[in-house]
Structure formats: C-alpha cells, structure tokens
Here is the input.
Amino acid sequence: LLAKGFHQGRTRRCREIHRIINY
Here is the structure.
C-alpha cells in the first residue's frame, strides 16, 4: 500500500520489500 509511493523503486532491496508488502 504505502510502499507504492514510499518505495517507488528507490533501491533493489526496496523492490523486494515492495512485492512482500504489495503481495
């Protein structure tokens, strides 16, 4: 949810977290 705007592809690790939070 907030990861979409918070972690908008900032780093490669953020992208992995994006998938876990976005499911």
Summary: The mean pLDDT is 64. The radius of gyration is 7 Å.
